[in-house]
């Protein structure tokens, strides 16, 4: 079974990807892992990626696509299938993936799209606060400090501030929408309600994947 998982930051994509891999025994292909493995194994594309990363530059699509192709060409993929996580990030990468799969004689069986209202994600992602003295992490809504805490004793990382989170979500929505539409046109997208208990989200995914097998 060859799958793709999509979802905005904070939608629980990572948690559900781990559950899919564990329960359906497919190879988990995440962008970060792929880059690290390609560089460690000193593959042609891995060395090329390293040359950009060492200079502090963004790795071009051509190299990223090449690393994905190297990984998808490995033997375990034909035996177990795969779950792509974190790729494609742009519509150009989606088109490149179409070509790669065609060249390798593979095809996608489904795209799991975990949907959560961006307003909920903004609350979820921008509520993290850290105690200045102890470094303990809390969440204003879901895991607040005990009692009437003094906000002056806590701080937020730049990444967690509402305006930063909103920008990140906006970028992800703008990039992700054309990709979802691309796969929806192929009849591959399965929308999953992500704003529910983790177990219920996975139960919905499990139903979809069991029907795909």
Automatic annotation (TrEMBL):
Native source species: Streptococcus oricebi
Protein name in the entry: Adenylate kinase
Pathway(s) annotated for this protein in UniProt: Purine metabolism; AMP biosynthesis via salvage pathway; AMP from ADP: step 1/1
Family membership: Belongs to the adenylate kinase family.
Alphabetical list of Gene3D superfamilies matching this protein: P-loop containing nucleotide triphosphate hydrolases
Domain of life: Bacteria
Biological function: Catalyzes the reversible transfer of the terminal phosphate group between ATP and AMP. Plays an important role in cellular energy homeostasis and in adenine nucleotide metabolism.
Record: residues binding AMP: 31, 36, 57-59, 86-89, 93, 157, 168
Subcellular location: Cytoplasm
Entry comment, domain topic: Consists of three domains, a large central CORE domain and two small peripheral domains, NMPbind and LID, which undergo movements during catalysis. The LID domain closes over the site of phosphoryl transfer upon ATP binding. Assembling and dissambling the active center during each catalytic cycle provides an effective means to prevent ATP hydrolysis.
Keywords of the record: ATP-binding, Cytoplasm, Kinase, Nucleotide biosynthesis, Nucleotide-binding, Transferase
Pfam families given in the database record: ADK
PANTHER family listed in its UniProt record: NUCLEOTIDE KINASE
């Amino acid at each position: 079974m060859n799958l793709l998982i999509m979802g905005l930051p904070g939608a629980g994509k990572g948690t559900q990807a781990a559950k899919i891999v564990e329960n359906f025994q497919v190879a988990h292909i995440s962008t970060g892992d792929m880059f690290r493995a390609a560089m460690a194994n000193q593959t042609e594309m891995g060395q090329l990626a390293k040359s950009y990363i060492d200079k502090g530059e963004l790795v071009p699509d051509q190299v990223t696509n090449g690393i994905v192709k190297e990984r998808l060409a490995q033997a375990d993929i034909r035996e177990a299938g795969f779950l792509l996580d974190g790729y494609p990030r742009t519509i150009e990468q989606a088109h490149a993936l179409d070509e790669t799969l065609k060249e390798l004689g593979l095809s996608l069986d489904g795209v799991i799209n975990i949907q959560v209202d961006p307003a909920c994600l903004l609350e979820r992602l921008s509520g993290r606060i850290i105690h200045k003295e102890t470094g303990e992490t809390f969440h204003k809504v879901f895991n607040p400090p005990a009692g009437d805490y003094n906000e002056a004793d806590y701080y937020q990382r730049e990444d967690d501030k509402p305006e930063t989170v909103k920008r990140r979500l906006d970028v992800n929505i703008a990039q992700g929408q054309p990709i979802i539409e691309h796969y929806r046109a192929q009849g591959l997208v399965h929308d999953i309600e992500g704003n529910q208990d983790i177990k219920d989200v996975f139960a919905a995914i499990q139903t979809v994947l069991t029907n795909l097998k």
